[in-house]
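Reopening this ticket.

The earlier resolution said the output was attached, but the attachment link was broken on my side. Pasting everything inline this time so it's all in one place.
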Amino acid sequence: MLKLPNKGPRRTGIPDKTIAELLFCLALIALISFRAHVEAEPMCAAYAEPASDHFDGELFFNPKYGPGHGAAAPVRPGEEAQRRSFGWFWFRFILGIDRPDWPQEVNAAPAAPPPERVPRGSLMITPVGHGTFLIQIDGLNILTDPIWSERCSPVSWAGPKRRRAPGIRFEDLPPIDAVLISHNHYDHLDIPTLERLAGKGARRSITTLGNRDLICKTGIPAVDELDWWQTLSLSGEVTVTVVPAQHFSMRSFWDRNRTLWGGFVISGPSGSIYYSGDTGYGPHFREISRRFPRIRAALLPIAPFWPKNSNKPPHRNFNRVHMGPAEAVKAHLDLGAELSIAAHFQVFQLGADAFEDAPAELKSALLEQGVEPESFIAPPPGEAINLKPVFTLLNLPAAAAGN
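Inline output:
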């Protein structure tokens, strides 16, 4: 029998262990995505409406970059960023390359139960954790992107794990009048939490285009989906407007950018509150400020991001769809907000930043950009922020505010 010479182990430049981990992770992600696609969340009908400056008739995209921006060959809107972002996702997020250690769990007691409601002219905002805020405004209770689950994932046994408990126990929530869902990523559109809210009596949800069918499956009785700049009334005095964000959408390999992403402005007698959802820094902040010139509170993400002490540069598309502390401070200034409150940090590890990086770099960014630290805060989950009643700001007697 002919014997081939032994040339020794084949060298690919990538350790065998890393290759094995990559193959395992690819198989795991394919299984999770298949389960989400076929078993857990059957695909809804594709959204079909006339094309716009952020929809080509089939896919949504970020107007700042436009169709095929930055690609060597023409691609459809959003595809180039997604392809490159997946490379970053596999190697950094799934394999854990260059990702710092986080505590497995932060021990923190939940806050006292919030009031059942606040009166007209009053505004209370309680961060629950990540993108979840309880906004109590003019007699209404509103939740943004609620997630009380242990993982943000299509399955309960894999995916990013919660490192910090919600600041409010689910059982202590007051009656919820509206649930705002900014986009369909698992850390923002959490089906188990929405099902629990439906069982608890949540009456209504407002979301971005293409997400209605999925949210309806949770049992919430009324679901409205809106395009950017469309407005809906929650009461005789309180409205919600969907506003632009610079991001993307995906719940499986089969539905990239088939639903819209966005933020919300809630307006009532006590003022306007802006919740950005996930977004990169862009010109939409100035346009939001132009249309809503007196924003009392802006809820802005400060992670995930590439920290200054990282030994590798960020992926070129990462900063297009996320903000770090420095960009969040720029957004705060663009918005002209009375107060900004940090979101999206120290709950799920989704980037290259260490656990303490986001609040630490927020302090540095405020100093570098000459912004008073009291105007952009990063409170722990459960710490309620009471904004002064409108009649106090206007130097009116309390009785006049109710007229």
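Reporter confirms the inline version is readable. The mean pLDDT is 82. The longest strand covers residues 123-129.
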